[in-house]
């Protein structure tokens, strides 16, 4: 599915699933505040706006870069980035990250051409964003919610080479252990003079996430509200120890943005909204309806442009 041009009512219909269900994609790669065209550097997939769901996805190769992404592996360009200098990240297609939950960005080095790499190697984490500290246990305490982009300064402690850079948002809005994962990968080539220890700890996908990991056990509707949240995957690199594989059971609390070097703040998101009630009552349908109307207006403005 291409999103580079919005020029007809039929294209607008492609956006309706997102407007109705608050689903989203991350087709734009960001390099030093410049937002790319859709899928210019990101690997398209065949899953549209739909999320991947646990626990089934945890044992599937689709957890790497989403369903059918290998069908599009030769299409993206490769973004050249300088370790320790450039700010990189991802932006949504339309609207913002509507659901609460952590954002993580991991990287995996290709043994050869990135255009043929399936992501079966080791993955290490370079960025995560979670909740405010202290956290009130509610949706409005997530730093990720209602933002449309997530950027960070790439550490200088990454060897030169071609990598898949994978963004993942784990939506935790449902009051049970099944979680929704929104995943996309970019093709990047890192320019670096780093010759130190290999980045780590690392995980493999699938295999690195387990159904009983703390990250997947969060009940956002619990009463009393939860006091801490966890991001999937290994600890951040650098600062997460040396190389070698690590189980996702070693997940760290989902904290405010943490990465060596200067952080660039997520921008242009909507104001934070109130979280879900502390009880297991249904969420505020009026607030959701207002959000959908707002996004519908945005699509109409795009079509008129």
Automatic annotation (TrEMBL):
Residue ranges annotated for the Auxiliary Activity family 9 catalytic domain, each copy included: 23-221
Catalytic activity, EC: 1.14.99.56
Compositional bias ranges of the Basic residues kind: 295-305
UniProt subcellular location: Secreted
Predominant subcellular localization, coarse grouping: secreted
GO molecular function terms noted in the UniProt entry: metal ion binding; monooxygenase activity
InterPro entries referenced in this protein's UniProt entry, alphabetically: AA9, AA9_LPMO
Record field: compositional bias (Basic and acidic residues): 269-294
Signal peptide location: 1-22
Keywords of this entry: Carbohydrate metabolism, Cellulose degradation, Copper, Disulfide bond, Metal-binding, Monooxygenase, Oxidoreductase, Polysaccharide degradation, Secreted, Signal
Entry keyword annotation includes Disulfide bond: yes
Record's catalysed reaction(s): [(1->4)-beta-D-glucosyl]n+m + reduced acceptor + O2 = 4-dehydro-beta-D-glucosyl-[(1->4)-beta-D-glucosyl]n-1 + [(1->4)-beta-D-glucosyl]m + acceptor + H2O
Entry's transmembrane regions: none
Record-level GO BP terms: cellulose catabolic process
Cofactor (UniProt): Cu(2+)
GO cellular component, one term: extracellular region
Keyword Zinc tagged: no
Entry similarity comment: Belongs to the polysaccharide monooxygenase AA9 family.
Protein name in the entry: lytic cellulose monooxygenase (C4-dehydrogenating)
């Amino acid at each position: 599915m291409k999103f580079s041009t919005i020029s007809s009512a039929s294209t607008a219909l492609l956006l309706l699933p997102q407007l109705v269900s608050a689903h989203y994609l991350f087709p734009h790669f960001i390099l030093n505040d410049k937002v790319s065209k859709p899928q210019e550097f990101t690997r398209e997939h065949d899953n549209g706006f739909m999320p991947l769901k646990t626990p089934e996805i945890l044992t599937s190769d689709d957890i790497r870069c989403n369903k059918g992404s290998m069908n599009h592996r030769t299409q993206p360009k490769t973004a050249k980035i300088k370790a320790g200098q450039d700010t990189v990240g991802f932006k949504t297609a339309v609207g913002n990250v509507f659901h609460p939950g952590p954002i993580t960005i991991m990287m995996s080095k290709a043994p050869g051409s990135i255009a043929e790499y399936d992501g079966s190697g080791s993955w290490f984490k370079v960025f995560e964003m979670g909740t405010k500290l202290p956290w009130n246990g509610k949706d409005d305490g997530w730093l990720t919610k209602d933002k449309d982009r997530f950027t960070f300064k790439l550490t200088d402690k990454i060897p030169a080479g071609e990598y898949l850079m994978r963004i993942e948002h784990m939506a935790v809005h449902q009051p049970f252990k099944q979680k929704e994962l929104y995943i996309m990968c970019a093709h990047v080539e890192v320019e670096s003079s780093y010759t130190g220890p290999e980045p780590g700890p690392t995980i493999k996908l699938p295999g690195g996430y387990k159904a009983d990991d703390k990250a997947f056990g969060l009940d956002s509707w619990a009463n009393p509200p939860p006091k801490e949240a966890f991001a999937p995957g290994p600890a951040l690199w650098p600062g997460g120890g040396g190389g070698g594989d690590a189980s996702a059971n070693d997940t760290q609390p989902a904290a405010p943005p943490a990465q060596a070097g200067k952080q660039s703040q997520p921008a242009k998101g909507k104001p934070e909204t109130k979280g879900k009630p502390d009880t297991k009552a249904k969420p505020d349908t009026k607030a959701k309806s207002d959000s959908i109307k707002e996004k519908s207006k945005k699509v109409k403005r795009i079509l008129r442009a």
